[in-house]
Design brief:
This protein is mainly beta. The chain has one domain: YVTN repeat-like/Quinoprotein amine dehydrogenase (Methylamine Dehydrogenase, Chain H, 7 Propeller), CATH 2.130.10.10. 8% of the residues lie in helices and 47% in strands. A hairpin with a 5-residue loop joins strand 19 and strand 20. About 4% of the residues have low confidence.
Amino acid sequence: MNLKFLSKRNLVLLAAATLVIAAVLLWRLWPRAHGDFVEYPMALATDIPTAVAIAPDGTVWFTIDSAGVMGVIRDGKIARLPTVRKIVEPIGLAVDAEGAAWYGDASGAMISRMLPGGAIKSFPLGTPIARLGRLTVAADGAVWFAEGTGYGFTRLKDGVLARNVPKSVRGGPYGVAVDAQGNLWGTLQSGNQIVKISPAGEIAEYEVPTRASAPSDIVVDGAGNTWFLEFRSNKIGKFAGGKFAEFEVPGEWGGLTGLTAAPDGSVWFGLLRGHRLGRLHEGEMKMFPLPRADARPYTLAADKKGNIWYADISGYVGMLKADAAKR
């Protein structure tokens, strides 16, 4: 545009229009407080946040479906770091001790690691296609992820892949968690089982009491108890001391998804259809309605302070404040 041919009036109008656009963009990206909640809207209306994880320094990482970027929240501001390609359904995400984010890249059939500055290193899976579930990082730095393509759970350590396939022919690996002893806990959705893989590679399979419950997300709390979601039966499952316990979520089927353990021992989950967060603590459940009626929490993570973060596939990353989460 040649500014020499613009009148003074047109220049003023152009400057005003630019300020309006900038103001709208800033308003769009600015975090919004809703009582006990804070929401961070996505930069684009097409952005769908899918997984969320917390770094040791409190940085919040999140994946965005088919966007070609990774999201980061630092000091209350969102940054977008480019990935190698657009990743379809990036639901596996975890952060290691150095603050780097590991994520599953099914589109490229690889697992990738992004440093806080945005540099990426990828590890090919050696398969022409990949179906990937959740992902976690163990205390020894090993990365575990559910690999539907191989019907099992894969460990990545020092660039070496070790695949672990349960004996059951029923599959559907989805959730993963690692306990303090280095055991991997995973879920088999279509197999209706949870799986334990020892550091030596020994595999044990446990049948969930409720038939066809489709166990999905799984987590180990600070006391060593294993918790998991029963997606179809609308229950929270617990496995401890070789025994199962199940807790039915009140109300209609809510579409349970996302599971995390808070520092106080409570476990949190999202109700995709119910537009709420749920808390189970010492056998009691409490629901926390989200600030928007169309909110759809898909993945949860608790930070060290007890704030509960969630990836909302309707276009937000949200947080329930720690003081409210303890009420």
